[in-house]
């Protein structure tokens, strides 16, 4: 009797152990399936999120290009105004669908870029710092340049036809040379690019190197600028004493501190703007700071 009861207890115990083991296997298998479903769902969510963010960032790049236009002055205010309008419109559209709300603001301290600006009184295009080493007429504006937002110059006095005032944008052995010089055939001025005359006329010379355009007096033309070169570039001025005028240059690169002094200061400028992004969904909220590529 005792042996029989002991046998029944062992049988019941064995069944109980089997149930526990079987239940554990089912539970473990259930976790694996749930984890797989969750992972698949997360991947879909991540993909949708990435697509949404890429679309928003493209829009913000287009907004930046429109806000910048052809000049730097007031860009930050115009861009911040455009960002407010964009987020307001975006959130109005998604409000009825329970989508993702957005807030986007310009982060100037995290943005990339430097501006040098001599748009006050006309003067020679010499190196701004008179005490730097070497020839002050030949100097480097910036090197390791990856993006140029604006490069405008105006020459109201043009010197001799030898050793002409020249801007060189260089990438290793390849370069683009733009010269401003007096015409040898009349009293006008020429803008030549890589030895070919692009603009000719009487009066002040205006050049937009980023856009590839020039004007002399009332005559205007366009030319292939540095865009056929691959960055990074160096930007150099040769024979800066052969012309007088004004310039404005903003880029992402290295601006040698020894070349600059008052009244030409190096100041931060958002050539590549940084945007603080906040996304709010029904289930989560997250923040990112992104650098927006601007198609200048």
Notes on the structure:
This protein is of the alpha+beta class and 296 residues long. 30% of the residues lie in helices and 42% in strands. Helix 1 crosses helix 2. It has a domain of 150 residues: Jelly Rolls (Sandwich), CATH 2.60.120.
Helices and strands in order:
Elements: H1 2-68, H2 75-95, E1 101-124, E2 139-158, E3 165-171, E4 174-182, E5 189-193, E6 196-201, E7 205-208, E8 213-216, E9 219-222, E10 233-238, E11 243-254, E12 266-280, E13 285-291
Antiparallel strand pairs: 1-11, 1-12, 2-7, 2-10, 2-11, 3-4, 3-10, 4-5, 5-6, 7-8, 8-9, 12-13
Helix pairs in contact: 1-2
What descriptive keywords fit this protein?
296 residues; alpha+beta; Jelly Rolls; 13-stranded antiparallel sheet; 2 helices; 13 strands; 42% strand
Give me a quick take on this structure:
The chain has 296 residues and is an alpha+beta fold.
Structural class comes to alpha+beta
The secondary-structure element order is HHEEEEEEEEEEEEE
User: So what's the oligomer here?
Assistant: single chain
- Determine the N-to-C terminus distance: 96 Å
Instruction: Note the main sheet.
Output: 13 strands, antiparallel
Total DSSP helices: 2
Could you say what the CATH architecture of the domain at 119-268 is? Answer: Sandwich
As for the CATH topology of the domain at 119-268, it is Jelly Rolls
Instruction: Report the CATH C-level class of the domain at 119-268.
Output: Mainly Beta
Helix content: 25-40%
Shape: elongated
Low-confidence stretches: 1-42
What's the total number of strands?
13
What average pLDDT do the residues reach?
82
Radius of gyration: 32 Å
Strand share of the residues?
35-45%
